[in-house]
Design goal:
The complex is a heterotrimer of chains A (309), B (350) and C (339).
Chain A (H helix, E strand, L loop, with lengths): L1 H16 L9 H10 L2 H18 L42 H37 L1 H15 L3 H10 L6 H28 L2 H9 L3 H37 L11 H9 L6 H29 L5
Helix pairs in contact in A: 2-11, 3-4, 3-11, 4-5, 4-7, 4-9, 4-11, 5-7, 6-7, 7-9, 9-10, 9-11, 10-11
Chain B lengths: L1 H11 L7 E14 L2 E14 L3 E5 L6 H9 L7 E10 L2 E2 L5 H7 L4 E4 L3 H4 L6 H13 L3 H14 L5 H4 L9 H13 L5 E5 L7 H18 L2 E6 L2 H7 L2 E6 L2 E7 H6 L4 H8 L39 H5 L5 E4 L5 E7 L4 H6 L1
Parallel strand pairs in B: 3-8, 3-9, 6-7, 7-8
Antiparallel strand pairs in B: 1-2, 1-4, 4-5, 9-10, 10-12, 11-12
Helix pairs in contact in B: 5-6, 8-9
Chain C lengths: L3 E16 L5 E17 L3 E5 L6 H8 L7 E6 L2 E2 L5 H8 L2 E4 L13 H11 L9 H11 L16 H13 L5 E5 L7 H18 L2 E6 L2 H7 L2 E6 L2 E7 H6 L4 H9 L41 H5 L17 E2 L14
Parallel strand pairs in C: 3-8, 3-9, 6-7, 7-8
Antiparallel strand pairs in C: 1-2, 1-4, 4-5, 9-10, 10-11
Classes of the chains: A mainly alpha (309), B alpha/beta (350), C alpha/beta (339).
Chain lengths: 309, 350, 339
């Protein structure tokens, strides 16, 4: 018998001697390598980094107090486009506050709402979707029906109703309303993804080894099912920011003294003829932000899509 | 039925027997991907005559399917690219033809059968409609005529109760029946050549035998050329007239079927044949070709098979072997036998 | 040999067919495995052959306790494991492991080879103490003929044959006594199949493993198996030693299966006598009454549609033909030299 094993040895040595040419790296790293080469990703990521910097440390970008109004400055003071980073760069709004400063400070509400809502719906919806997809049966039936019910409610209309119940509305009440109404979107994506992954042989293999539910869910299913959720979440993030602005514009979202682009757009719309710049800057900022997240989502989808690799 | 049959056979007989129907000459195909350039086909030569069955034998990555797709003109370009070579159909180079000319040949003169019949059929159209479509599009037949012809075709490939099943949808048929429908579709316009890419790999053994038998029978009946692409040495032994063995995008050996199995002239062929479990080897270790199939992005220098070869010499590691004419011990040429091995003599006679 | 390590008694697995979305009601059942009995001895290889839909893969899943048996028993060393759950089931899993068909889907693409092969140790920490695990994983890689330095690589960096070796290493990690191989080489290239078969045989001797080897490739099954069982539509139709099955088959289905297999040798192919079965395998949701093979059998008579043939030794036969066969008209086929 040792003879047999010896004879076998050279064949096996060769079997292992020829490594594939690539360097060892995970699929996540692979996606990163891919992303780095995409201009769309670089532009959108740069924009988002800048936006987050606005949100975290607005005072780095302007020393002007966005809430300090001087009625003498009012709309009629035209912007002075050569005064870079100064109070009157983009002019003043109806209460004589610096539009530039408000544009910078407004990022915070948008970023906080966007990120918190996305995190909330991803965790809540993702968990529900995972449970529905993993367990199937009546659990799935119940979760799916609830999801369907929520899907029937238009996000904006639903948020209007929920937010009306609050007497004072902060960033957190907006986050609450959007998470409560938006989680089902992630549930659907996650459920579908989990059902596909659940059938993979490596999940069966883990069960055959005696792995527990938690290990199977978080070690085997989640890492393989998460990609479409990340893509949808990234794209949805821009949408949540737009929704927050819309709600604030309608007067049902954030309220003064919180600074939000939506509020500024609302107050600027009345003077669109005399002071279009007052509308242009917060609206432009909002569009660029939403676009940046949607572009990021697209780039991430392309990088994670296994069909393209 | 018999008269129709006689007529078709007579028409086909005008071809001088033995002249190649299709000849592939020095074909090179590359794929450009983000990992580099994969040389999928590196100078393939083969030919097939009317009434002849050529089996192209190879493993995954040997280039056997890419060659077939190039012949059919269904290769995805890009990423694929034909860098050199000719594909002569009745003496005319198809690679130089206009798209319009090629389309006329495709389906009408050369038809293809794929491994996966379910994904090759349109799931929302009845099989009768899909079969009849060939006649409506190519021959301008009326709806009624087309349906009648579809039933006749289904009869021909022995689908039971064809007249009742003509309006059924692909998913209502079993795997074997679907593959018969694919064969019927390929036969519809009585092509001169059929390319069958792993036609029975997805089927069960007992059904596989039915389908292979049918294919061989129809081929004889219509006097067609058949290129059978497969990795299965058993299927090849059953139906092929001659064999081309491919490895890493090259033909490594061609031979008439009996001679190839009896006396292979290339170490790869020899290794494949030896690695099949045999009765007298029970309980012994199987012969195994060592190593891995080649990486097309990094084909080894010299003979692509050299890292896995038991008899490789320094010459094999540096120089790509030409496809040598194989001769017997006295130096007399063996008809149809070629081997791309520097040591073919030792392999054949040793 | 003698003592059976695994004994299967009248194993049944039905999948209910239901209708309705909210209120499901059962309208029938797919009888994937329908009364299968056999034994597996220590150190033995039992081959199971059959075509798709015959229930061989379901059988593997039920034996692995990945699917609950509808009825019947699976006795591991005398203890029924088919009803176990929780820690008791987990303990049994250490002794019965599986190798999967498709090496491309059976390895988690997001885990390194080290994590994949090391996972059994994380699930069963008692097998290898924490400090020794890396060493143990590298030993396993070595045992299956892979470079131990590949421990940090990901599955997509390996070829099919190498991946299957990784799958085998994972199956070996817990030092099981039984390994169920479900089509372990059918997804591999021809030139690599022999390597993996040799590896499995080497490991069997080295670790005294018992194999249940499920495949549709009859020549490979014959090569590796001591005994062979043939399945058709959820039932074993014939079982015996490899010589009994391959040289003295008495069940018509086995005979047809054997004659349909393409022989990799063109000699005498024109004269070869083949049984070409008509039709397809019936649906396991609605199998024929009596003998399930009767709709495709050339020997079928009235009796076959009413009386289910039992798997038993036909009394009238002698020699190699004296082995279990589930046919009313079991007989060896007069073969005109089938080679």
């Amino acid at each position: 018998m040792p003879d047999l094993i010896e004879k076998n040895a050279p064949a096996q040595a060769v079997a292992s001697a020829e490594p594939k040419p690539e360097k060892p790296r995970s699929l996540g790293l692979d996606a990163w390598h891919d992303l780095r080469k995409r201009p769309v990703f670089i532009i959108s990521a740069a924009l988002i980094v800048l936006l987050i910097a606005f949100a975290i440390a607005p005072s780095l970008f302007t020393s002007v107090d966005p809430r300090a109004g001087d009625l003498r400055l009012h709309y009629l003071t035209k912007p002075n486009y050569l005064h870079f980073f100064q109070a009157d760069w983009f002019g003043y709004d109806g209460q004589g506050r610096s539009i530039y400063a408000r544009m910078i400070y407004g990022a915070r509400a948008s970023v906080v709402v966007g990120i918190c809502v996305t995190a909330g719906v991803t965790v809540l919806g993702g968990l529900a979707g995972m449970i529905a997809g993993y367990y199937g049966g009546w659990v799935d039936t119940i979760i799916s029906r609830v999801t369907d019910m929520f899907f029937g409610i238009p996000l904006l209309l639903g948020a209007l109703v929920v937010l009306n119940a609050f007497t004072t509305r902060t960033v957190w009440s907006v986050v609450f309303a959007l998470v409560a109404l938006g989680w089902t979107q992630m549930t659907r994506v996650m459920r579908g993804s989990v059902i596909t992954v659940k059938q993979a042989d490596y999940v069966t293999a883990a069960r055959a080894l005696g792995a527990g539910t938690a290990r199977i869910m978080f070690k085997h299913i989640l890492p393989n099912a998460i990609a479409p959720v990340i893509v949808v979440a990234t794209i949805a993030l821009g949408g949540y920011i737009a929704t927050e602005a819309t709600l604030s514009f309608l007067g049902i979202g954030l309220q003064d003294p919180t600074i939000s682009w939506g509020i500024d757009i609302n107050s600027a719309q009345k003077v669109i003829r005399t002071a279009p710049f007052a509308l242009f800057f917060p609206a432009g900022m909002l569009s660029v932000t939403v676009l940046a997240f949607i572009m990021l989502g697209d780039a991430v989808r392309d990088a994670l899509d296994p069909k393209l690799r | 039925m018999t008269t129709a049959l006689e007529k078709t056979t007579a028409a086909k007989d005008r071809l001088v027997p033995g002249t190649p129907l299709l000849e592939v000459r020095d074909l090179h195909v590359e794929f450009k991907t983000r990992d580099g350039v994969a040389k999928a086909v590196n100078g393939v030569n083969y030919s097939v005559a009317a009434g002849e069955t050529l089996a192209v034998l190879g493993e995954s990555g040997s280039g056997k399917s890419v060659t077939a797709q190039t012949i059919m003109g269904i290769l995805d370009m890009p990423p694929g690219r034909v860098t050199a070579g000719e594909i002569l159909f009745r003496g005319q180079d198809m690679l130089k033809m206009s798209n319009e000319q090629r389309r006329k040949i495709r389906g009408r003169k050369i038809a293809m059968i794929f491994q996966d019949a379910l994904s090759s059929l349109n799931p929302v159209l009845s099989v009768g409609y899909q079969l009849g479509e060939m006649f409506r599009v190519h021959e301008g037949a009326s709806r009624k005529e087309a349906k009648a012809k579809a039933i006749e075709l289904m009869d021909r490939v022995r689908i039971p109760a064809a007249a009742q099943r003509v309006n059924d949808f692909p998913h209502q048929f079993s795997g074997g029946m679907r593959q018969r429908i694919m064969i019927a579709m390929a036969l519809a316009l009585e092509p001169d050549l059929i390319i069958a890419d792993e036609p029975t790999t997805a089927l069960d053994v007992t059904v596989q035998a039915q389908v292979m038998d049918l294919l061989a029978e129809l081929q004889a009946e219509y006097h067609m050329g058949l290129i059978l692409i497969t990795h299965d040495l058993g299927v090849v032994a059953d139906v092929a007239d001659k064999i081309a063995v491919m490895y890493a995008g090259r033909i490594v050996e061609t031979a008439p079927v009996h001679e190839l199995y009896a006396r292979p002239a290339h170490p790869y062929t020899k290794g494949l044949l030896r690695s099949i479990p045999r009765l007298d080897q029970k309980g012994e270790e199987l012969y195994a070709i060592k190593g891995l199939p080649p990486n097309l992005y990094k084909v080894p220098a010299g003979c692509a098979f050299n890292p896995r070869c038991d008899v490789a010499t320094d010459l094999c590691r540096t120089e790509i072997p030409a496809l040598h004419q194989v001769t017997d011990r006295d130096g007399a040429e063996l008809a149809g036998r070629k081997s791309a091995c520097h040591l073919w003599k030792e392999t054949l006679h040793g | 040999m003698a003592e059976p390590i695994l004994e299967v008694r009248d194993l049944v697995k039905h999948y209910p067919l239901t209708q309705g979305i909210l209120f499901k009601k059962q309208v029938g059942a797919v009888k994937a495995v329908d009364g299968v009995s056999f034994t597996l001895d220590k150190g033995e290889t039992l081959g199971i052959v059959g075509e798709s839909g015959c229930g061989k893969s379901t059988l593997a899943k039920v034996l692995m306790n990945l699917e609950r048996a509808t009825a019947g028993q699976v006795l591991y060393k005398g203890e029924d494991i088919s009803r176990l759950s929780g820690p008791a089931l987990k303990a049994v899993r250490r002794n019965i492991q599986m190798v999967f068909q498709d090496p491309y889907t059976s390895l988690n693409p997001r885990m390194t080879v080290g994590d994949i092969i090391g996972e059994p140790f994380e699930i069963h920490p008692e097998v290898a103490p924490k400090g020794d695990r890396r060493r143990a994983v590298q030993d396993l890689l070595d045992v299956v003929g892979l470079n131990p330095e590949y421990i940090n690589r990901y599955p997509h960096q390996f070829s099919g044959g190498q991946r299957q070796r990784i799958g085998i290493a994972r199956g070996l990690a817990l030092k099981p006594e039984i390994i169920i191989c479900d089509e372990p080489v059918s997804a591999l290239d021809v030139s690599v199949q022999a390597q993996v078969i040799n590896l499995l045989e080497k490991l069997q001797t080295e670790f005294e493993l018992s194999y249940m080897f499920i495949a549709h490739d009859l020549s490979i099954v014959r090569h590796i198996s001591d005994r062979v069982g043939v399945m058709y539509l959820g039932k074993l139709v014939e079982i015996g030693t490899d010589a009994e099955i391959y040289d003295h088959a008495t069940h018509p289905y086995t005979q047809a299966l054997l004659s349909a297999v393409p022989v990799p040798d063109p000699t005498g192919r024109e004269g070869r006598e083949r049984i070409i079965l008509s039709g397809d395998i019936p649906s396991p949701a609605n199998p024929p009454s009596g003998c399930r093979f009767r709709t495709r059998c050339w020997k079928a008579e009235e009796r076959c549609s009413t009386e289910v043939p039992l798997l038993a030794v036909p009394e009238v036969l002698s020699g190699g033909a004296r082995h279990d066969s589930a046919c009313h008209f079991a007989a060896e086929r007069e073969v005109a030299a089938a080679s």
